[in-house]
Amino acid sequence: MTEPLLRRLHARGEQLVVGALPWVAPVYRAMPQVDAVIEFPFAHGGLQWRARRAMARALRGRFDVAYVAPNSLKSALLPWWAGIPQRVGYVGESRYGVLNRRLPNPTGGERPPMVAFYSALAGAPVQAVSETPQLRIEPARQAADLAALQLLPGSYFTFAPGAEFGAAKRWPAAHFAALAAQLSLPVVLLGSGKDAAVCAEIASRVVAAGGIPCIDLSGRTRLDQALSVIANARGMVSNDSGLMHVAAAFGLPQVAVFGSSSPLHTPPLNSRASVLWLRDDPAYQPPLDCAPCFARECQFGHTRCLQDIAPERVAAELASRLR
Fold first, then answer.
1. Fewer CB within 10 A of the terminal residue: the chain, N end or C end?
2. What is the CA radius of gyration of the chain?
3. Among 66, 94, 128, where does a domain finish?
4. C-alpha distances in angstroms, 245 versus 135, 185, 202, 236, 251?
5. What is the pLDDT of residue 111?
6. Integer distance in angstroms from the first to the last C-alpha of the chain?
7. 163 lies in some domain
8. How far apart are CA 136 and CA 224, in angstroms?
9. In which domain, by residue range, is 281 found?
10. How is 37-49 classified by DSSP, letter by letter?
11. Tens digit of each residue's pLDDT (9 = 90 or more) over 279-301
């Protein structure tokens, strides 16, 4: 979601070095406008003050401006300790002092679209931003990745059934399996090791039903390989997740299923994408007044927002995108 920001900065002549955690660094290497990527040796969610200070010392004197995309205080400490003259970001977690060009936090109940939220760091008015994120991988790299996984371009669909922030964002495994039975090509399941259990359940259901081949690659590919798999798929079905945005950035025909989160906040910015969100469906009764709740678990225990999106409806949407 930060790619349009980087594109804006590159277009005005800035040379870009991105600091990122290892699990997301391959995404930035697929952005042509990025000159280099520094992998931060920090655990996701960890504080690690000593490691951050050591990294800050290594970066001192190398940069003129730091654009701090995350809103946490700890993410702003490193450029401050590194003495980078201009440090740009949102106020976030009361980051007065550590940032010297601060944007006000969004106000009101609605969360702004994330692409516009990040692009505003470059000085663009949030309301005027409409860019679509774009990724690019060299054809030779894609071919090598597919060959290593024994896949042929365009010969499969991809499912991304995981979601980082809890079950309230995950379409049921039984629905994914029922959808696979309605498709004409094999299905490749993608995700991290955290998604292995749900992917294994989908694969076992597909096998038990005697349906099409289902290839479970969850936790078995590097992220750069997963990017190549997505880029060469016939289409993608996913929850609201990082891999959903990857598919959008490659312009893949896709269906994105939303539950507890909102497509007004993190939509797949892709003209070939369909979004299914019952909160926005006037024909769905009774209305889902609880959505979006942005909760990890459904407080009512029913997850109607996901359970009531039928596999047949997703199959029809995917067919329309393919046309």
1. C
2. 20
3. 128
4. 10, 22, 22, 11, 10
5. 77
6. 27
7. yes
8. 11
9. 140-322
10. EEEP---TT---H
11. 989 899 888 889 999 999 999 88
- Whether residue 115 is found in the same domain as residue 151: no
Dihedral (CA of 311, 204, 322, 232) sign: positive
Question: What is the identity of the amino acid at 123?
Answer: G
**Which CA distances in Å does 193 have to 173, 197, 199, 227?**
16, 8, 10, 16
List, in order, residues 6 or more apart from 6 with CB less than 8 Å away.
16, 18, 31, 33, 34
Q: Which helix (H) or strand (E) holds 286?
A: none
Partners of 139 in the β-ladder: none
pLDDT of 83 strictly over 90? yes
Of 235, 217, 232, residue with least CA distance to 146: 232
3-class DSSP state for residue 73? helix
Q: What percentage of residues in the chain have a pLDDT greater than 90?
A: 80
Which has the closest alpha carbon to 134: 247, 300, 222? 247
Q: Are residues 156 and 105 in the same domain?
A: no
Torsion over CA: 259, 274, 131, 157 (sign):
positive
Taken as a whole, the chain contains a residue count of 323
Task: Tell me which residue of 66, 61, 117 sits closest to 87, measured CA to CA.
Answer: 66
Tell me which residue of 30, 80, 12, 75 sits closest to 242, measured CA to CA.
30
Say if CB 21 and CB 38 are below 8 A apart: no
41: preceding bond cis by omega (within 30 degrees)? no
How far is 257 from 240, CA to CA, in rounded Å? 6
- Token pair recorded at residue 143: 């071919």
Residues 122 and 178 in one domain: no
Residue type, 233: A
Contact 266, 1 (CB under 8 A): yes
Quote the tokens at residue 28.
Answer: 């930035």
Whether the pLDDT of residue 75 is over 60: the answer is yes
Query: CA-based angle 115:119:121, to the nearest 5?
Result: 135
CA distances from 37 to 26, 212, 231, 235, 273 (A): 9, 40, 21, 29, 29
